[in-house]
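**User:** Hello, beginner here. Are you able to go through the protein record under this note? It all follows right here:
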Amino acid sequence: MGAAGAQDIDPFYLERLISGERAFLDGNYETAIDELKIALFGVQAEKQLKAKAYLFLGMSHYHLEEKDQARTYLKDAHDYLGTEGLRDLVPDDAVWFYLNRVLADLKMAVSGKPEVATGTGTGSRTPAQKPVSKQGTSPNAAGVARSLEMKIKADPQNTGLYYELYEHYMENDNGGAAKRTLESLIKKNPDEARGYFLLGRMQYRERDLRNAERNLGRVFGLQLKAPVEEFVLLEAKIFQILTTLLSGEKTRAYDMYAQWADRLTEERIRFLDLEEQERAIFQGIVQSAEAQAAIDKLEGEEETEDVGPGENSAPTNMETDPSSDLGPDNIVPLEEVDTEPELRERVDPRYPAAAVERGIEGTVTVSALISETGDVLDVVVVQGLAGGFNEETVKAVMQWKYDPAIKDGQPVKVRKQISITFKARF
């Protein structure tokens, strides 16, 4: 905003603009709209202020499920300033993060490229609970579904069509068909992280915890192949934590939260799509003494460094150490299986460049949850090493593939400790 332009604006209208923005952040969307519309009368001559009013008007209308108005205002804001200009208007990362989610749901994009709807279903999208629209099946619902199914059949790699059909079914209270749509999506597009997240979330809400854990875990493996939207990662991690807690693995749930505490900030959590009960349970985790203890333990581990001589990056020396971690009923202690999981595909972790320069060596020990299909669902650092080693180890082990553990002739889920030694070479 130009200084001269701002000085020419009546302070009354500037105050209305500020008040409207605050009302939006507080979840008072009708008040925000009233204030921002008044502000528009007085800021017509200042392009940035006008675009800002359009921006928050658009998001406020979106929260009230008035998507046509939301789309119009957000398009006007983008037409005025473009992507970079909008980013300057929204220095708050949490709001920017959420704006991108709204634009995706409206099939808009600040990058200029078309995006698809997120298919978020019901629940809160906002700092305060968004009213949930319960729509009955419209007379034309079957026709819309058939049309989308035919388009998918003709173009099975068009992921946007699946999400549109999924959202159509969710809006018409047909969860079974919505789930089958997601299953078809990931069958035809196995690298579609958002599809795994939405399916895992549905399975969590149905208390199909085993499948929920598997599908939510796949989201984090797929982010190593291609970028995944931040809100998808954050929501997938929250539901992974809730699934773990509901499965009876309280300690692991707190450890998982501790590793993501820096990203799951209060500002971001309030913009995520959680139902009221889910939000309350997760807030209970965040505020618990157990979670704080897990964070303190993690921070203590990261303060310890093994420093040794070294000039160049060297290959890693990997050794596996069986663990006898106990878990809930669906996780079998490793010493009780007939056949331990056998590694089929291994990805070596990258030696952190900064650690090479400083000659840092050491060992990272993690506990990997290996599913009945041999996929690594979760990795928790047991003994860490600062300098990027923990992150690189988790990324690598999440991609490992096993022949699953066997007990009584059946594949079973187990936890296994894995130690990876980083050794610098002269």
Remarks:
- The CA atoms of residues 316 and 422 lie 5 Å apart.
- Residues 183-298 form one domain.
